[in-house]
Amino acid sequence: MFEEAQYFAPVAANEDGSVTVELAKSHPGFADPVYRARRNAIAGLAVGYTRGEPIPHAEYSEEEHEVWSLVTRELAAKHRKYAVSEFLDAAEALGLPKDRIPQLEEVSELLRPLTGFRYIPAAGLVPLREFYSVLADSFFHSTQYIRHHSVPFYTPEPDVIHEVIGHGNTLASERFAALYRLAGQAARRVETAEALEFVSKVFWFTLEFGVMREGRELKAYGAGILSSYGEIEEFRGMDIRPLDVTVMGTTVYDITKYQDVLFEAASFDHLEDVVGQFWASCDDEMIAKLRTTA
Predict the structure, then answer these.
(1) Active site members
(2) 92: three-class secondary structure by DSSP
(3) Rounded-to-integer distance, Cα 72 and Cα 285, Å
């Protein structure tokens, strides 16, 4: 859940080449000039980045490292209870630091021998087609900033905890990484905005907010659930529906609250058969037909 309707804070370019992150008044860091200056500096690193170069080093405060340490510790305990085994195995293989915020370049180097995925720093909102299409090349756009230290278990926008603890651990699994790549290939293949939105909604209800049956238990594999201190405790009580590409691709969702409709894969094989095959074969014509049957 990201409780601010903006989802990402807008980033404005200044005449002197610097950038300003326009935080909403409701943002926990709005009245903190030190945090805001650091947000601006971190966004500036991404604005000037060229793909293929080493990702610039982001500076964090001790308070921010403490936030990472606290949230990492608390989420790890919840993951052992609620996360699918594929995620747990991938997280162990990746071995993220527990006591400090890792640099995106560092995480990329940890991912490289496992699945080949690498990060691209993002200042804020990335256009939909650009965000998804680079997945085909094993790249993932990620923010570098972290939530305000005053509210360590809440963020009004995706931060480095979501991007690295949620997506980074997932991308350390070759089975999950293959699905990300297929989503990227689908985004490149389709041409209409409607088809791209359909592809993105399937991604949202699976790799962001997907759940899966393991034995008799319902477990989470979506990065949005696995990086949320509160939502991971609530997902089993939501409206759980069968995995269905047509329904997922046409369901409207609200990013400002916990996702109350989730789609359950019967197994990892089931996820790959249904969603993986859809992304591997979909085109504009197929999606147009699916949308008419919804």
Answers:
(1) 162, 167, 208, 227
(2) helix
(3) 44
